[in-house]
Design a protein that fits this description.
alpha/beta; TIM Barrel; 9-stranded mixed sheet; 6 helices; 32% helix; 24% strand; globular; binds iron/sulfur cluster
Length: 237
């Protein structure tokens, strides 16, 4: 089996519920989408990065693991583009006693289910229709898939949180409705966080709008958090 990896590096996790943890990032090549705020454009082509045999990719991860690394974050692009290789790599990382984490828009619930048994943490990103992620018809299918992934993660007992990237185009009503849908889809306790992440450097939402989004979610889930990409504020990759 082959896998295309764009880059492997250690940094500080700057997003989500595990921000601040020392993390080895494995950025897989390839994403079929095109969010207008994407900050990893170079990794979107499926032929970007370098092709490795699975054995060499695992050796690369082993050699890159620094002491006190909290987790290995499989990111992209979208790592589900290469779900079989990610599952094998995640299994290998767990066998070394290091936690695994998947960062995905979860566009394909079958691919997600393949990786899920080898995950300690999952971040399921719900894309807003205004992200230009995909055409609006495609958005509803991707949205249903993300919800199905969330249900699967809940059944598996994987620590899972939801992220939504918001810009000045995003309405607080949309974010509130998303929270209603998310927390209506799974039993209480399945979701370990609901993170509102503002875009950085492009069409940033106002603080007032962010607070309105927070207020729209809070009645449904008081664990809601507004978390910007904090690594960008300390110059971390
Ligand atoms: S899904 Fe993620 S990697 Fe793909 S275009 Fe959107 S932001 Fe970029």
């Amino acid at each position: 089996m082959k896998v295309r990896i764009f880059e492997v590096f250690t940094s500080v996790e700057g997003e989500g519920i595990l921000y601040g943890t020392k993390t080895l990032f494995v950025r897989l090549a390839g994403c079929p989408f095109g969010c207008f705020y994407c900050d990893t454009l170079e990794a979107l082509p499926a032929d970007s990065g370098t092709e490795y045999s699975l054995e060499d990719a695992m050796a690369l991860v082993d050699d890159s693991l620094q002491k006190n690394t909290f987790k290995v974050n499989f990111t992209g692009g979208d790592p589900l583009m290469q779900h079989e290789a990610v599952a094998e790599m995640a299994r290998h990382v767990q066998s070394r006693g290091v936690a695994t984490y998947l960062e995905s828009s979860c566009f394909d619930s079958e691919r997600f289910a393949h990786v899920l048994p080898h995950l300690d943490y999952a971040k399921i990103e719900f894309k807003t229709p205004d992200s230009e992620f995909v055409d609006l018809g495609g958005h509803s299918a991707a949205h249903r898939s993300a919800l199905e992934c969330l249900r699967n993660a809940g059944r598996a007992g994987t620590t899972t949180y939801v992220k939504v990237v918001v810009s000045r185009r995003t309405s607080p009503q949309y974010v509130g409705a998303l929270a209603d849908e998310v927390f209506g889809a799974v039993p209480e306790g399945v979701v370990s966080g609901f993170v509102i992440q503002p875009t950085y450097g492009i069409e940033e939402p106002s603080l007032e709008a962010l607070m309105e989004m927070y207020d729209a979610v809070y009645p449904v889930y008081d664990g809601v958090r507004i978390v910007p990409q904090m690594h960008k504020y300390i110059g971390a990759p």
